[in-house]
Amino acid sequence: MSDRKLYRTMVFDSSRWDGFELRPGDIIISTPPKSGTTWTQMLCAMLIFDGAEFPASMDNMSPWLDMNTRSRDEVFSILEAQSHRRFIKTHTPLDGLPLDPQVTYVVVGRDPRDVAVSFEHHVANMNFETLIATRGAAVGNDDLDEFPPPPPPSDDPVERMRLFVEGDGFITTFDSVVGHLRDAWERRDEPNVALFHYRDYQDDLPSELQRLASVLGVELDAERARALAEEAGLGKMRARAEELAPDTGHNHWHDTAGFFRSGGRGEWADRFTEELAARYGERVGEFAGGDAQFAAWLHDGRRAGEVDLPR
Fold it and tell me: Which of 91, 122, 180, 250 is catalytic?
């Protein structure tokens, strides 16, 4: 892996990128969980296929390369067989990925507090028994002792948020989310790295789709952007959940349509005491290091945060 950082959980293993042959024009979508990954895959797919009709399920068009529910050989074969422009999903930060100047890296952020709430619902919707069985068939489960199951979640939403803020949660924590985004932020001036934000998608999806098209070198006028953005609305994507949700072939969801949950902004508000809010501010400061622009973008995106980003 040379100097790449290793990211490894029960669910994914960034060393699976070893030996993968990137192609000029590849797109790697690198996001923390519950930060608009599938939404961004949908936007890329519409730009690549010039519409909302696709030749395969999202999971096969844009596989999560480092997820342990399919063998690496299987995922490599899927991607090697593709003749369209490839767009690959990962939750590995850029410092854990092979970096190639001919590849575009799209990183999407979201307010970490919204991520915490969304991830709780995500975990509640997962069928862990099926997930572990699928993992065993794909990569074996001999190493599961390295990943002890998390304790039952507290009944107190404030305590659950405290665990997230302190980095003591299950897989997705404040540290993993903000560390991922801080690393990308520091690379934002690189010509093949582009930062997007969940709130910007919510506030003006057609404009963000045009911005993504510009990043990818795809021509897209405003009228076409508005038409495509309608196809990427939550309701329409939920109606196509069997086609668009991740890993649908393995029955990992209690409710597949529930993957596209209609969570809004600020659901975390009643999960913060005054003390926890102060601690959260301290933790943001640890990662921001006095960079007010990063903190503004982290929570509000480039529009509401009035943050200028390249392209």
Answer: 91
Distance from CA of residue 174 to its chain's centroid?
A: 14
**Is 122 a known active-site residue?**
no
Q: Domain containing 281 — which CATH number?
A: 3.40.50.300
Give me the number of domains the chain comprises.
1
pTM above 0.85, yes or no: yes
User: What region, left, alpha or beta, does residue 306 occupy, with left being phi > 0 and alpha being psi -120 to 50 degrees?
Assistant: left
* Three-state DSSP class for residue 126: strand
Identify the band that residue 125 occupies on the pLDDT scale cut at 50, 70 and 90: low
Task: Specify whether the CB–CB gap between 27 and 85 falls below 8 A.
Answer: yes
59 CB-contact burial (10 Å; exposed 0-12 / middle 13-18 / buried 19+): buried
pLDDT in tens, 160-188: 999 999 987 667 899 999 999 999 999 99
| Cβ partners under 8 Å of residue 138, min gap 6 | 68, 69, 70, 71, 74
Cα–Cα dist 272/278, whole Å: 9
